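Cross-check.
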Amino acid sequence: VAAFSMAKSLAPGDAQIRAERAMPLLEMGRLDEALEDLKYAYRLDPYAPLVNANFGWHYYHRDKFEKAEKFFQNSIDVKKDFLAGYEGLIYISRARGHLDRALITSFKSMRQIPRENPVNIETFIDLAMELGLEELAQNKLNQLQTDFPNNISFYRAKYDLLMQQKNYKEAIDFTNKFFERTNGISLNEYVEAKGKAHAGLGNYKKVLELIKKDYPRALESGELKKGTTNISIAHYAAWALQNSGENEKAEKILKTTC
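Predicted model, tokenized:
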């Protein structure tokens, strides 16, 4: 926010800067402040895709989905390949429980946006899996693997598919190989992914062993800090301890890190 505030003072008439500044404010729950920036940006350039999309996110955070949908659609009407607009419409469909509509929107975005966007394909795979369209998801996953074998989107899509299929051992093996080959997964995500898979096997002791080994490394690397939201390793430690009947140790971990 500070960087955008400085940019705003240097370029007060830049609609994009004002619209971009609104996003971190929205994420922090400072909706009224974000709205001030968005209104100002809209007056400067009411047709800018980013301005409309971020206005959409503002109404999304207020659970005003009809208004949000209108602004997301506006951003796409102006720029057919504007990914943020499609993402917003997908989020709204998810929130309403309309996964089929979200999948259609995702498909439209892939037709408008070059296939070189792995995040776009990952979203489509995720929605197809949620709808039980496993063959469709697998076909798109094969495309993602061919085009982006070392991309984090490929890893996440394949991992999620393996977990949904309850192929927990394969998920662990795949996570290890991807982590060693690319180092493209943060230590935090690596521990969380393996922890979920071991838990799927009912092996909570293995989860604890994993955390005992990698939890200190995460602290040293700065990935895990007291008072931040990036505390999933601590949560998994507590969760594994609870499932092992050690509630006092679980509470201690949560009090220490949260």
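Residues 204-221 form the longest helix (18 residues). Residues 120 and 131 are 17 Å apart (CA to CA). Passed to J.P. for a second look.
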